[in-house]
Prior knowledge:
Residues 1-21 are annotated as: Disordered. The protein has 311 residues and is mostly beta strands. It has one helix at residues 269-272, and strands spanning 10-11, 18-19, 22-23, 36-45, 52-56, 60-64, 70-75, 80-85, 92-97, 103-107, 111-115, 121-126, 131-137, 143-148, 158-162, 169-173, 187-193, 196-201, 205-210, 215-219, 232-237, 243-247, 252-256, 262-266, 277-282, 289-293, 299-306.
Amino acid sequence: xxxxxxxxxxxxxxxxxxxxxxxxxxxxxxxxxxxxxxxxxxxxxxxxxxxxxxxxxxxxxxxxxxxxxxxxxxxxxxxxxxxxxxxxxxxxxxxxxxxxxxxxxxxxxxxxxxxxxxxxxxxxxxxxxxxxxxxxxxxxxxxxxxxxxxxxxxxxxxxxxxxxxxxxxxxxxxxxxxxxxxxxxxxxxxxxxxxxxxxxxxxxxxxxxxxxxxxxxxxxxxxxxxxxxxxxxxxxxxxxxxxxxxxxxxxxxxxxxxxxxxxxxxxxxxxxxxxxxxxxxxxxxxxxxxxxxxxxxxxxxxxxxxxxxxx
Length: 311
């Protein structure tokens, strides 16, 4: 049995982005833990494992995995609408959409491609020898990229922020601490929330880093009754600036606040009938969440997890 009592993450440093109550609040809508209420809306089988999911509009999403050069566009009723191949025999790692509908795609040939709405490559970023994985856009549409170092030393791993056209490298983040340690060790997924970035180190932990590259907190799934070791694989934010982190080994999602405190374990296998959670995407228009798995049948679940949420 997995319990879900609130716990506190490990604080690394105290910097200007925080105050006595944590990260400085903004105009996000008011949140209460009483709003948490999980309901499975629909599930369907997809031709691709849902290792990365990007919701679009009110009821659609792009779905992709790491072993295919094609991504698939589905509606929430499980109907495949179309598919798209970026580069033949070049597997897709992740994709994000700009507000104009352009695509930013990371691929396993160590490239990031910027595609205009008509599908033409407008810019390309070579990240060799590092492998690009998760992506996110800032409020100003700068591109943050997880760059994994798969060499033995692994000392080059970082999150790099590029200009919106991909032509300028703005900064690199490794998650420094005052003690000289680096907390971004194997960046796999990243999301920008307010003035900070939350980075998932593949199957290890999640860390929160400010714009000055200082680590604010580290979350290791501090929940005493987890049956297995914490295995974070993806992260997204919702309209309340809370974070949803998938946990593959424990078949659930860790719902935490912006200060790294666990609110509750949600979307568990008992609640939605899914195992080996991996890809996740919150639809900011409806408040629903799309989840994909990584083992067995390639299932997609669309569920709600909050009652009375702002849509």
